[in-house]
Amino acid sequence: MAASLRLGSRGILNGIKLIRTCRGIPQSHHGHYRHYFQSQSLFGAAPMKVMMPALSPTMEEGRVLKWLKKEGESVSAGDALCEIETDKAVISMDSNEDGILAKILIEEGSQSVRLGTLIALMVDEGQDWKQVEIPAPESAPAPLPSTPPSSAAPTGAVSHKVEPRVGTGQLRLSPAARHILDTHGLDPGQAKPSGPRGLITKEDALNLLKQTGSRGPAAPKAASVPSAAPQPPQPSQPAHPASTSQAYPRPSIPPISVPGKPAAPGMFTEFPSSNVRRVIAKRLTESKTTIPHSYASIDCDLGAVQQLRMDLAKDAIKVSVNDFIIKAAAITLKEMPEVNVTWSEEGPQSLGSIHISIAVATEKGLLTPIIRDAATKGVQEIAANARALAQKARDGKLLPEEYQGGSFSISNLGMFGISGFSAVINPPQACILAVGRLRPELSPCLDPDGSPALRQQQLMTVTLSSDGRLIDDQLAAQFLDKFRANLERPQRMALI
Description:
By secondary structure, the protein is an alpha+beta fold.
């Protein structure tokens, strides 16, 4: 107690001395003196802001999967702060400063965090991280005031439209049924829906019209309507609670199902989507709506490739058919550089490198890691790179340089038994090659003595989707013809 009293009296004496000193400070310095009492060192720790970074060129938002540091832990420059799911992979975000992680503002699992969003705060070493000042959130712009409806009476034709009332939930009408009910002034609440999920069809509207009798469309009235004139009679309204009265501009979405209860007709269950899935949906929509796709298909005989694979297997060298396809595509692009192009905002661009993107299916969506400089690599090296990249893609550990900058894409669904399909171009690339399965077929041929015979072929259908702005149909056909020649003679690819 005595020690506390001594410290208290000492603090009072120091305060009195400080006040006396302050009286001698010129008026012009009072602002600096006041700033001393309002400084962060006295009333709070000045924070260092940690923002959501752009971890890839196409990234617009991210998802914080896991924080690797806890509040109060020391952080050195280069330490991993958290794991962020981008539009392509999961990447660790490193700290650029030394300090202490004071406050985590975006919790784990938060989705759709826009770039530049404040996700955490740090303070310098030695500062009290518990007293960190949290910046106030930026206020959203005030909404514009709605324009009040004009009180002026209309001078033209006046039409009276029935505002139907519905029960629990909005009614769902087909366009034809909506037109019939609006034209004849009928209440859709009186119709008996017979369509799927309670949809009122054209037949339901016609049945209601027969029951009530057609009055025909209302004729337009004169230019002006006296205010005291009685309103035209309204059709009878069904007795529904007033609290559920609303118009039917468009049908609403079905109700969400409740776990543990049986699903009613029209219900659905929401499930979370990853950032990768949302970006894939956006880019596919962009590709199909902005790129004029052209398609061309050709059959390739892989008999020589299969024989070479068996010969290599005897020497314990394992390569897949897809590895030969990657090599053949790269060699063909080397022979036809006019196909190795992309489309940018400035127009066509010819690429000096040949990087092949391979489509890999993961739980979060389709990723496209890149085999760089595939034309200069052997099939065995391509096979090793493809296996390593595919595993990293499935584990979500691809680095940005491992999936950015491809010039040509290959998507192979042959292992799933698909004979042939058309793939969607991955912008800004100009082409994507869709590969089907191997299928044995008999084809006519001639024996050495000239007599007709049959021989079995291992055929595979490939379909080239190309950007019509860069590659016309003739150029696409020439590319496929040369690709087939390279693939059917695999020894030739080693000489180019």
